[in-house]
Design goal:
InterPro entries: DUF4287. By secondary structure, the protein is mainly alpha-helical. The chain has four helices and no strands.
């Protein structure tokens, strides 16, 4: 599953865009460098019933922003992404 596909599935599961979840996380202070991934994963599991894989995708966005490594961009593998920048504003508004 691509990184973007994880975020799209999170939107399906929660009804919230990745950006909305990012804003909630920021309001809780989870973007602070001292906050460990486990704390964020616990929140996502408790409030949104997200598992570790989907949770870690959001942890990356919360801690590092929407940029990802370009190593899978344009590849044919199951983790291939179209871009090294993740779309956070929801599937419906994603440019074609």
């Amino acid at each position: 599953m691509s990184f973007q596909a994880y975020l799209d599935t999170i939107e399906d599961k929660t009804g919230l865009t990745p950006r909305q979840l990012l804003e909630i996380a920021q309001s809780k202070g989870f973007d602070d460098p001292s906050v460990k991934a486990g704390v964020i994963l616990d929140w996502l599991k408790e409030d949104y019933e997200l598992g570790r894989g989907h949770g870690m995708a959001l942890v990356h966005v919360i801690k590092k922003g929407p940029s990802i490594s370009g190593k899978h961009v344009g590849s044919d593998g199951t983790h291939a992404d179209e871009s090294d920048t993740l779309w956070l504003d929801g599937k419906a508004s994603k440019p074609a």
